[in-house]
Amino acid sequence: MDFKEVFVKIFDQNREIALCAAGTAVALLGLGLVYKYTCPEKKLTQVGVVTQLLVHPMKSGKAVSVETAECLRMGLKYGELRDRHWLVITEDGRMVTGRQQPRLVLVSLTCEGGQLCLSGPQMEELRVPLHQPNNAVVDCRVFSVDVQGRDCGDDVSNWLTRYLESDSTVRLVHFEPHLKAQRPSEKEPLFPKDEKVAYPDAAPIMLMSEASVRDLNTRLDKDVTVLQFRPSIVVSDCEAFTEDTWDHIQIGQVELKRVIGCGRCLFTTVDPETGTITRKEPLDTLKTYRLTDPKQKTAPILGQYYTVKKTGVLHVGEPVCKITY
């Protein structure tokens, strides 16, 4: 049998495999061409630079400024610290925030070596085990939404009650992944129905620009800082209020989708350095020119709420890019 006969015989035996492989290759090529010409190309345009990343472990507590943070579906994470994953409550489960207890903004909550650490003015530092799985799971409420948290124990409760000089006992709870979370869509239908957060007012991420705060300061007798507005991500190198137009942004590998403006309340009148509340500024001034969302008639907008479409790690100094197609 010569070479030609051998080749023909082998080809006949493997004809089905060869035809199948060729067909698959053609199909994949066709799919690639369809994707290329029917799916718009993503375009990135730099609109700013990240200048601060702020984790607020305890709702209404002191911010922790970090150089890098994980950006997860439920917000920023730095080591064991998760953004707004601790909540002060009354004994019947109602949230306690800086609106009622402005000195909460001076309380620092950190985690070191498996311990939860609390510190505040004129108070001794308290350290307790971070994880206390035998403690009770408590039903509580953030505004009108039912959530749950793991009680952090009597030592923490006594410390906070003494610090706040409260006539009524307060307690601290910690959100754990298996517990009941908030669904922002229950309060605001613009949020995706599968979105979940622990104890924030609304969203996992709040972003604002330094320029917006500078603009506000030109209208005030006394300057304020971004800390007064408790953002997660602070951006520079942009014009005031341009963040209102950043519907879809990318920072490194992280993608964020804007949902709604952050409507401001009485909490903005608490000074983060002194823990005092004026109940006036800067809220009164914001109301004179930032009532920009008809749905939030009495709440001036400063900063924007975002959901996390693609998780990753954020770094101070990274460019913020607007995504268009």
From TrEMBL:
<dbReference type="GO" id="GO:0005743">
    <property type="term" value="C:mitochondrial inner membrane"/>
</dbReference>
<feature type="domain" description="MOSC">
    <location>
        <begin position="179"/>
        <end position="323"/>
    </location>
</feature>
<dbReference type="InterPro" id="IPR011037">
    <property type="entry name" value="Pyrv_Knase-like_insert_dom_sf"/>
</dbReference>
<dbReference type="InterPro" id="IPR005302">
    <property type="entry name" value="MoCF_Sase_C"/>
</dbReference>
<dbReference type="GO" id="GO:0030151">
    <property type="term" value="F:molybdenum ion binding"/>
</dbReference>
<dbReference type="Pfam" id="PF03476">
    <property type="entry name" value="MOSC_N"/>
</dbReference>
<dbReference type="Pfam" id="PF03473">
    <property type="entry name" value="MOSC"/>
</dbReference>
<dbReference type="GO" id="GO:0042126">
    <property type="term" value="P:nitrate metabolic process"/>
</dbReference>
<dbReference type="GO" id="GO:0030170">
    <property type="term" value="F:pyridoxal phosphate binding"/>
</dbReference>
<dbReference type="GO" id="GO:0008940">
    <property type="term" value="F:nitrate reductase activity"/>
</dbReference>
<dbReference type="InterPro" id="IPR005303">
    <property type="entry name" value="MOCOS_middle"/>
</dbReference>
<dbReference type="GO" id="GO:0043546">
    <property type="term" value="F:molybdopterin cofactor binding"/>
</dbReference>
<protein>
    <submittedName>
        <fullName>Mitochondrial amidoxime reducing component 1</fullName>
    </submittedName>
</protein>
